[in-house]
Write a structure and sequence with these properties.
rod-shaped, 9 helices, mainly alpha, 233 residues
């Protein structure tokens, strides 16, 4: 009997202590939803920026991949056509290869007969246009990588101001639990901003590296074409 009473008393004590002893957990969704209207707006803006960054990244990667496709024997075929005097055949060959290298070569072929300096200038101007096409919207990725962390930090600062405003208006009597909850909820915008910024920064660097490879291929082909024109007939 005594053992039963002691057991019941222990169970009652555990039930009373259980709400306080259970660790509070909060999902990411709940953390965002509990952040207030200001934090939710900041998070929504960051999600939009993330979507834009991911879209630009994949769009540029596919465009650069298409631009880098070129037949390895392309310049050899151009050499044969130009050496035989078949400039029209060389132009048709360039038209069949839809790539920056082919377009630069076609521009050079169309200037054959002019001074070599004029041909070089024409190729350089066409090259600048091709590079501009390859770098389309890449600057947006750089902007997002820098702006996203600052936007997230702005949300945190706003949340901190509101939390301390609550403390000030309550004459220092605000519950520490509510104050702490408001502070760590505000910090979620900084975390989200850093995540978006890191993703955009990595995407930007990868696109730049892939673009540089295509640009180097264009430069190599332009030099090879000019060397072809300098060869003794």
């Amino acid at each position: 009997m005594l053992t039963t009473l002691l057991q019941e008393g222990a169970d009652e004590n555990l039930q009373e202590l259980d709400p306080e002893s259970v660790e509070k957990t909060l999902s990411v969704f709940e953390l965002i939803m509990n952040g207030g209207p200001g934090a939710m707006i900041i998070i929504a803006i960051l999600f939009v920026l993330l979507f834009v960054a991911v879209y630009i990244y994949f769009e540029r990667i596919f465009a650069i991949k298409a631009a880098s496709k070129i037949d390895k024997n392309f310049m050899n075929q151009i050499r044969e056509q130009v050496a035989s005097g078949n400039l029209q055949g060389a132009k048709i060959l360039c038209a069949q290869n839809n790539s920056p290298v082919a377009r630069l070569t076609a521009k050079g072929i169309s200037r054959i007969g002019n001074p070599l300096e004029d041909i070089n200038t024409a190729i350089e101007n066409a090259g600048r246009l091709e590079v501009y096409k390859l770098e389309k919207n890449v600057s947006v990725l750089a902007t997002i990588s820098g702006a996203a962390p600052m936007i997230g930090f702005l949300g945190t600062v706003i949340g901190m101001v509101l939390a301390f405003h609550q403390l000030a208006t309550s004459s220092g009597q605000a519950e520490m639990g509510q104050l702490a909850e408001g502070i760590y909820t505000a910090m979620t915008t900084t975390v989200a901003g850093l995540i978006v910024g890191i993703i955009a920064y990595m995407a930007y660097n990868h696109v730049v590296v892939r673009t540089d490879k295509v640009v180097h291929s264009m430069e190599s082909s332009a030099v090879e074409f000019l060397d072809l024109l300098n060869e003794p007939s």
